[in-house]
Specification:
single chain; about 475 residues; alpha+beta; four-stranded antiparallel sheet; two-stranded parallel ribbon; 10 helices; 8 strands; about 60% helix
Amino acid sequence: MVIVSKRAASLPVASSTERHSHDFRSSHPRLFHRGSCAVRAGLLGLALSATGLAETVSLAELEQRALGARGAVAASEARVGSAAARLEAARVPSRPTLGLGVQAEAAPGGRLVRVADASGDEYLVAGSRSIGDPGALTPDARYGATLSLESRLYDFGRTAAAMRAAQAEQRAAQVAGRAERDNVVREVRSGYLMWMLAHGTRDILRENAGGLTALRQSVEGRVAGGALPGAEVAPARYEEARAALELSRADTEVQIAGLALSRAAGLTLGPDATPDFALLDSLPSAEARVVDPKADALEQQRSAALSAASAHRKAASPVLSARADAGIRGQFDQVFPVYRVGVTLELPLLDGGASNAAAQLSTSRAAELTALAREAQALADLDRARRRAELSDSETRIHLAEQLLQAAQTSHQHAQDQQQLGGSALEALVRTQARVSAAKLELLTARVARANAALSLAGSGARPASRTR
């Protein structure tokens, strides 16, 4: 911001830079809460001239770093992994299980006794003595090993429903992960544009401060030579001090914007890092996307809830399973074969209404997600329409700002020529320089607004491409 001396304080252009900055914040709140060819080249040269050998950080680089460093992205990937594990767990009942059991024990009773039947055939049977008989408490060692194979033959759709629910949850987690990545990219883009705007504003104010310092030196030289009265020195020094104060504030804004961008990108920007102003002329084309990532994620969650409701209803279905056991059992030196084959039909009769209650809960959740998805898509459509209007408006503003800057530079050059000839007052020179700075800021904010609108309309996977106007 440039403020002239008291004698020119009533001029409307004195605080035009400050007013424009306020107008831009009002008309582009997301930039601040997230956040002719010759003229454009001149502004770009101004923005880059002050950086010297500073490191230029591109937006694409920060996006990639953010996707690899942000905890939100890592958390979404972990949720996808959890969903895959749940799907694998849902498949387990359809697979056979094989187990080996080994037994060894010592207990009284059950001692093998050789008995002959009426035909003279001998058998070994277990016999026990009652308490009080000799040897009733004498332990006998027994051992055994059994191999068991069990498989679910048919469960009337219970496993299939559980797998469909798990697959739907996995798809929902994947889509939610993409939505989270999209959100991170948009957050980085918003922070990057805020950082760029702060840098560009500081460069304009630095040039303005340099011009007022040169003006003060010129006034002091002319006063020393007797060409100007000594009273002209104080206003010149006042303007120089005001410009230095505004430049100091701009330095703070750059630091704050850098910190915000560092958090969004998940890294720490170096003190010499600067934005790539070429982005303002290399914007991606708007993506013809219909479904909003957030709305898509909600829709997938709705599908998962409906699948879960179906799985809960199937929980009361009967289960037909088969089991086969084979092994040996023995006592002392006597070993016997063991095997068993059987089929079991399990029919849940009463669960207290638990399955129906769980199904109703999932169905209600699905209805809620349907409404939320519809609302999210409507908001996304509204935002895209607003961004398209902002993109069109910013093009018009850029054209007008270029004309404004050309006129301001011509006026300032004329005032400088007149001042050198002694025919222009200090107030006129300061006023025209303030107009130049305000016009440059108008052009910068219009170009940043265009970039914000274009990047918002583009998909998160879009990258800057060549753009001509």
